[in-house]
Every structure is written in C-alpha cells, then in structure tokens.
Amino acid sequence: MSTLYIRLPTRVAAGRAADQAQIGCAFALATDAGSVQREGVAQLSELAASVAGAQRLVLILAAADVSLLRVMVPPLSPARLRAALPNLVEDQLLTDPADSVVAAGRAIDGLRTVAVVQRDWLELLVNIMLALGARKIQALPAQLCLPYRSGAVSAAVSAIDTGVERDISLTLRLAEEEGIGLPLLSQAVSAIAPETVHMLRLVAPEAAVTLYVPAAEMQAYQTALEQAGEQRITIEADSWAHWITGARNAQPDLALGLSGAAGPSVDWGRWRWPLVLGSAVLLVNVLALNLDWWRLKQEANATRAALTRIFQEAYPQETVIIDPVLQMRQKLAATKRQAGQPAPDDFAPLAAGFAEAWSRAGSDGQPLPAIAALEYHERALLVRIKAPGEIPLAQLQPALAARNLTLTQQGADALQIRSAQ
Predict the structure, then answer these.
(1) Are 41 and 66 in contact (CB under 8 A)?
(2) Helix axis angle, 393-401 to 347-361, nearest 10°
(3) Which helix H or strand E contains 407, and what residues bound it?
(4) Cα–Cα distance for residue pair 187/190, rounded to 1 Å
(5) Which of 20, 300, 397, 403 to pair with 266, CA 20 to 30 A apart?
(6) For residues 387 and 389, what is the distance between their CA atoms, to the nearest angstrom?
(7) Which residues have CB under 8 Å from 353's CB, separation 6+?
C-alpha cells in the first residue's frame, strides 16, 4: 500500500496560474513503512498516474491558507459537533462560516483544535484530485505536519515553483496544536535568509527553534544566523522524512468537512473478479438448493400419494383424506376397540402400566407417597398425590419407559402419564 503526499503552494500564488490543474507542487510517494520511493516537484496534471495508483492521497495545505483555533467545545457526538462547529467559531472568523470548511481535531486540556480553510479552494483541489483518480483524500494543515518538540518551535522554509512564480513561505509550529504560515517576499536566497531569521526572532523571541531549509541553502542561512548573532536557531536540511512522520499523526482532516466527498471510496476494479466468483458460487448454491428442494418435494408428493392410495384401498368409503397416516391410526385404534382390544392410550392400559411402574419404584423399600386420585382426560392419566412428598422419579421414569409410557410432572403433587406409541 502506497501513499502520495503533495505539498501545495499558497492559494494566492496558485491563483495566478491560468489552469489550476497546472500549478506546481512538491510530492513524495511513500510506502506504509514511511520510506520514500519517489519525490520531486511537478504539476498536478503530471501526477495523474501516481494519484490513481496510490491507495491514499494526503494534501498538505500551505499554513498561510489554514487558520488554527483553540475552542472550548462541549461534549457532543461527531455528527452534532460537525453541525455546531461553524457557530462555535463564527465570532473568530472574518468571513461567513458557510464559505469555509471547519474541522475539529483532538481535545487537549479541555480545548479542541479547529482548522478553517476557504471552502472553494479546498473543493477545487479535491475535485482535481478526484478527476485524476484519487481514491481516499486527506487534507492536513502544513504547520501540524512539522515535527513537534515540547517547549521548542519548528519552522520550515518552503519554496515551490508554481509555474508562474516561485512561492516562498515560512511555516511555523509554535506548540503541539498551534502553528501559523507567513509569506516571504524576497526571492534571492541571500535576502530570504536574513528575512527568515528576523521573522523567527519576532515570532519566537525566547524559544529554541529548529529551522528546516533546502539542503543547498543551508550555508546561506548559517551565515545569516552568524551575522545576526542568533544562537537559539538550529539549521537542518529539509526532507520528506519529517513531513511524512508528522502527517501520520496530524489532525484535523479538513477533507472530512466536505460531507464525505473526499472520503474513502471502494476500488471496485480490484474487487471485480472476487465479486464475479462470489456471485457465481452463490448462484450455483441457490440452484442446487432449489433443485434439492424440488427433488424432496417430488418424493414427498409421491409418498403422500402412495399413503393416500393405501388408505383408500383399505377404507374405500372414506372420501375426505387430509392426513392419511393419522386417519389410518385412528381407524386401527377404532377397529381394536370394536374387537375388544384396548388402545395404548386408553384408561385401563395407562392405569395398569402406571401401577406396575409405581410398585416397582417402591420395591427397594423406599416409602411412596399416597395417591389421592386418578383422572383421565384427553387420552392422558393424571395421578394426584395425597400429600406432596419425595416422588422417586429416577426409578419411576425408566419403569414407565419400559412400558412405552412417558411421565411429566405437573407441579409438586401431580404426575401426567401418556402413551409413547
């Protein structure tokens, strides 16, 4: 999985280009481990292949275009927080909140970091990236992508050739959740370096500062520091390593403020063949289940027809046949009763079987409770115990099962006996 990082020039510098898709930007293609595979400066339109090939795209917006606010926010759900943010920061903005994208980051010490950027600028960038084939887009403030050191200030001089002019700006991270961007008016390195040192002394008069500058210009900045007699500022070569590390932990993501337009999307191309294969397997299983159901249905119909035919042959006078098996059992039971043979669920067989099982349960010398009454209804024998006592169910149930009888206890003083046949 690869991630494409793009550092954009300021909106003012990019606005001078005739075609926004042709503005220059710094980019780096990195792996999940953070190692840079490719980097350089190119126009947005020239990055179409890299944008479409990367699983994730991170836009690092110029610090001068993003305002960071620290706001006291009540505990709200994410959806309510997004709806309430414009009203919470309205009094701190010079423009209408509807014209801005507002996104909330993490909460620290009871305050939440809120980033604000012009909506039309961010929408333009996101639409360009989506047209180039971007799948998932993040938009992060550049000042929060710089390394953070407690009690120190991080700064970086960015020089991006937009195709019309060279956009030079100073990005500062003043604290963990605070940062600003300042434009640099000079173009020559010999003039930019003293101007940068002067701004740093004004913005951070006491804190230690780490200044990241292009590797080829380090000597010019070192000379400017010596001339200014400034020892709090340390010069280091700028590289994509610290930008990528900072972007991984940076919040908030301004792209989330565009109502999901730049949110994650499914790459259906990668899932085409798995979906086709899964659909084919599902179709085969559905067909197999339907064929098996049809076969079993045919067998059931044939079996019912055979049972119905046997019942009609045995009892030709019967014209209504609903359940041939049940009706056959009823006929056989009626025939046995007419012949003087009791049915298994008649009173006499149930009572006799229970009496034998009851006597056997008490054969081990265990006293049995007295029987108060025997009741017969709905082809079941209900035995009521005179005084609730210890009923030997462990001995009684096997004895009844041996006589094809089942036992169900009906409360503490009643037993129900049924035929198991």
Answers:
(1) no
(2) 130
(3) strand 405-409
(4) 9
(5) 20
(6) 6
(7) 400, 403, 404, 405, 417
Give the three-state DSSP class for 206.
coil
Q: What is the mean pLDDT of residues 201-209?
A: 88
Q: Which two tokens stand for residue 293?
A: 């159901």
Q: How many residues does the chain have?
A: 421
pLDDT tens for 302-354 read 998 898 888 888 888 888 888 888 888 888 777 777 776 777 778 888 888 88
Q: Average the pLDDT over 86-103 and give the result.
A: 80
Show Cβ contacts of residue 260 under 8 Å, excluding neighbours closer than 6 positions: none
Q: Is the pTM of this model over 0.85?
A: no
Instruction: Identify the three-state secondary structure at position 137.
Output: strand
pLDDT for position 269: 65
Distance (Å, whole) CA 206 – CA 202: 9
Which pLDDT score is estimated for 100?
86
Alpha-carbon distances of 357 from 210, 367, 419, rounded to whole Å? 97, 14, 14
pLDDT at 262: 46
